[in-house]
Each structure stands twice: as C-alpha cells, then as structure tokens.
Design brief:
With 135 residues, this protein is mainly alpha-helical. The chain has three helices and two strands; from the N terminus they run αααββ. 73% of the residues lie in helices and 4% in strands. Strands 1-2 form a two-stranded antiparallel sheet. The chain is rod-shaped, with a radius of gyration of 37 Å.
Length: 135
C-alpha cells in the first residue's frame, strides 16, 4: 500500500492556518482598541500595561475616597455651623436679658433658652455616614 502526500496542499493549509491565527489576533486588537491583549503579543509590554492599568484603577479609587472625605468634612462643618448659630442665639438672648433691653418676663426668656438648648441637644452626637460614624 502506498500513501501519497500532496505537499503543496499541506503547505497551503499550514499557511492558511497561520494567517487565520494572525487574523484572529488582529481582529481582537481592533475590536478591543488595545495594542496588547495578552502576554503572547508582547510579554514585557503587556506586563508594563497591566501595571499601568492597576495604577490607573488605584488612582480612580483615591479620587473616590477623597471625594467621600470631602463630603464627610462638609457634613461635619455644617453640623458645627448649626451648633455655633444656636450658641450665638443663646448668647444674644443672655446679653439682652442682662442689660434689660428685653421687656419680657424671665419665664419667657427661660423658655427661649430651653428651646434653643433642647434643639442643640436633639442634634445627634453620632451621625452615620455610610459605614463611617462622625462623632
């Protein structure tokens, strides 16, 4: 029995397989928009690009964290401002009562004080923000 080989056809098939493989890689690069898709493209370049991607993700997380921190500071500042305003009102009432510029009964002044101070005490000492507690 004799087996015949068609070397020209086998060579053409091998070349077609190589071209199909290269075409697949080229299409993958074109569709993803990236020059390096795997370590097989360029091992050292792929390693560098992966490190850069990690750094970019880390910088994005830093940006989000700093924005959350700024929000936390804004919330704390608003709470302190509100407390300061209440204390200024208490001081104003106390000064006016002391110099008798208010012709109001001491009972009414006491009620104003109690109302302002109860408003101050009703502010929660611990304000939950996400999972972070602002004390």
């Amino acid at each position: 029995m004799v087996i015949f080989n068609n070397m020209a056809a086998m060579s053409a098939l091998n070349e077609t397989n190589r071209n199909t493989s290269k075409l697949g890689k080229t299409i993958k690069q074109a569709t993803s928009g990236m020059r390096l898709n795997s370590a097989g493209d360029d091992a050292s370049g792929y390693s560098i690009s992966e490190r850069m991607r990690v750094k970019i993700r880390a910088l994005g997380q830093c940006k989000e964290n700093s924005a959350k921190g700024q929000d936390l500071i804004d919330t704390a500042s608003a709470a302190v401002d509100q407390q300061v305003n209440i204390m200024k009102q208490v001081k104003t009432i106390a000064l006016r009562a002391r110099i008798h510029s208010l012709m109001v009964s001491p009972c009414l002044i006491r009620r104003w004080f109690l109302k302002l101070l109860s408003g101050l005490m009703q502010m929660p000492l611990i304000r939950p923000i996400g999972i972070i507690y602002l004390c």
